[in-house]
Write a structure and sequence with these properties.
The protein is mainly alpha-helical. The chain is built from 30 helices and 5 strands.
Length: 601
């Protein structure tokens, strides 16, 4: 019996080998060989793959797609793929990789395996590799819908929302009511500022699937962004009705900064923290929300205990190495000298359109953005990911950033600036001559910005170190900001930022306009006039009435900038001063010298 099976398998393999040999010269014969095998072994994935290739070579797209789908269906019975899928589901990525690599070496056109390898790459954070694998799978099997769906997600995760939408439109063309694809498209539309279309999509999905708490949460996020605060709160509350332990919704309510939790809310959050098997993501969000609730009630000790607990969980998830940031600043200072820029005078893209607002998060950058976006010559956008994306590519093959920039030709430098403008064009919805790129952490890349866009304006939003850093410490960010979840790391990060700005003040004096948050609150008109003078824009009264501007705002300050300038949050750190010793020590001389930078920060 065993010998009969072995002989049969050998015959099948011989037939497939012959079919592969015939594929290029005689695809019709290769197809015939595949069909011979399938007559005796209908679940043979290799035969279906060979048939698909042969039919596609003969321009039979429909037949090829059907064969590709049959090959994918047959692949799920492969023991190696079953083992790899099990390992992926259990988070055992190394085991999954050990199964997939030899399988793909033997069967490089197995698109089911390629898709699984893409999932593995995505889990490891290698999104570029995942994209390449998924594109290869779709090249082999254009009808492989799950791979195309995964590609849309990967593009979205790489902040390439417009490309994700194109991919999703292909999927929705075949399955227009698919809720997962509609949901992702709505999120992507929000990323490029198409808010009304995104809201309409969320409403379509929720009409069919009203029992999905995370959909209500996403809908609430977008309603908040466009200024429909009461509707956003109602959406969040509906999500909590469906899932009372969903911590991100509680934090979303707290993060509006205008909601005051009552006793019932505090009891509900406390009870949720006691839920068995509560995920860390829910737990940390609940701690941050309870911290806000108790801070509003004037109980700083209990509030800080919750903030501290949330920060400890998040810090363990995304640890931060202050030495790396210190090294980035040191290397930038070594490269970006006055001589470096003098030698490249006249290079870069000379477009004056971008206005960069950078600095520490929670330093008032959204307020500055809202003021400027109220000027008739300036368009507000959102926190754009394009400078970090270009920086990630600009280090050369060896990743030598920023040193590799010294090797770039004038043409390459100009091309980077032009690419930035092309990438950001999707965010521009008006014909205003200037637009804002407000991404606080771009302070790390100020040297790069000055190189590729020498006529762009740069604004440094600066706030009192303790006020700014504590505001970061009690803020849970949707992504990134790993430095913000530990007091010592926060203080060292602020110092590194001050050191970088002091360097550029020395080597390119006057190029960066510093706006001190407290000065803006004390004398708004004077500071706004100084700001507009730096930008070479005429004063406009609309900048003083920024709170009347109905533009969408995505950040945590969205509701605050819809009110006139006030000092409500300026001293919020003071009741917590007894708990901020590690932060004070880490800030060192920067704290005493504020608002000026000490010589050795």
């Amino acid at each position: 019996m065993a010998s009969d099976v072995q002989a049969r398998m050998a015959t099948i393999e011989q037939a497939l080998s012959e079919g592969r040999r015939l594929l290029r010269p005689r695809p019709d014969l290769a197809a015939a060989q595949s069909r011979e095998v399938l007559r005796v072994d209908l679940a043979n994935a290799d035969a279906w793959r060979l048939l698909a290739l042969a039919l596609r070579t003969q321009d039979d797209a429909h037949g090829a797609e059907e064969a590709e789908l049959e090959a994918i269906a047959a692949s799920v019975h492969d023991p190696r793929l079953i083992a790899a899928a099990t390992a992926l589901n259990q988070g055992q990525l190394a085991i999954a990789e050990r199964q997939l690599r030899p399988h793909l070496k033997e069967k490089p056109t197995d698109v089911a395996a390629i898709r699984m390898m893409a999932e593995l790459a995505a889990r490891l954070g290698r999104l570029g590799d995942a994209e390449s694998l998924l594109r290869r799978a779709l090249e082999l099997a254009p009808a492989f819908t799950p791979a195309r769906s995964n590609l849309a997600t990967i593009l979205y995760r790489q902040n390439r929302a417009a490309e994700a939408i194109e991919t999703l439109d292909l999927l929705l063309g075949k399955d227009p009511a698919n809720p997962a694809h509609q949901n992702l498209k709505a999120a992507a539309l929000g990323r490029i500022g198409s808010y009304q279309e995104a809201l309409a999509l969320y409403e379509q999905v929720l009409a069919r699937m009203p029992a999905q708490p995370k959909l209500w949460m996403s809908y609430g996020h977008l309603l908040k962004t466009v200024g429909r605060q009461e509707d956003g709160i109602a959406a969040y509350r509906q999500a909590l009705t469906l899932a009372p332990t969903l911590g991100e919704v509680w934090w979303s309510l707290a993060n509006l900064k205008t909601v005051r939790f009552d006793e019932a809310d505090i009891h509900a959050m406390t009870r949720a923290l006691d839920a068995p098997e509560l995920a860390d993501e829910d737990r940390l969000h609940l701690h941050f929300a309870l911290g806000k609730a108790l801070e509003d009630r004037g109980d700083p000790a209990r509030a800080f205990a919750h903030y501290d607990a949330g920060n400890r969980i998040r810090h363990a998830q995304i640890p931060y190495d202050p030495d790396r940031t210190h090294d980035q600043v040191r290397r930038a200072a070594a490269l970006f000298t006055a001589g470096f820029y003098d030698a490249r005078a006249g290079q870069g893209c000379d477009a004056p359109d971008p206005i960069f607002i950078l600095g520490m998060p929670r330093a008032g950058s959204t307020l500055i953005e809202q003021i400027l976006a109220s000027h008739p010559a300036v368009e507000g956008t959102m926190e754009l990911p394009d400078i970090p994306a270009l920086v990630a590519r600009a280090g050369g093959r060896e990743g030598r950033y920023p040193e590799h920039l010294a090797e770039l030709s004038a043409d390459a430098i100009r091309a980077l600036g032009e690419e930035y403008l092309a990438r950001t064009r999707v965010q521009r919805k008006s014909d205003r001559p200037f637009f804002i790129d407000k991404l606080p952490n771009n302070w790390l890349h100020v040297g790069f910005i000055r190189l590729i866009l020498p006529k762009a304006r740069i604004i440094d939003a600066r706030r009192h170190p303790l006020a700014c850093c504590f505001s970061n410490y009690k803020q849970h960010f949707a992504r990134g900001q790993a430095f913000a979840y530990d007091q010592t790391a926060l203080g060292l990060y602020y110092r590194a930022y001050v050191r970088m700005m002091a360097h550029f003040d020395a080597v390119q004096p006057g190029r960066i306009h510093r706006l001190i948050h407290e000065h803006l609150l004390d004398d708004p008109e004077a500071e706004i006039r100084r700001l507009l003078d730096h930008l070479e824009l005429p004063f406009d009264d609309a900048c003083l009435r920024f709170h009347d501007n109905a533009r969408a705002v995505r950040t945590a300050s969205s509701e605050q900038v819809r009110r006139p300038i006030n000092r409500d949050g300026i001293d919020q750190w003071k009741p917590f001063a007894p708990f901020l010793g590690p932060l004070r020590r880490a800030l060192g001389p920067v704290l005493d010298a504020y608002p000026e930078a000490p010589a050795q920060a």
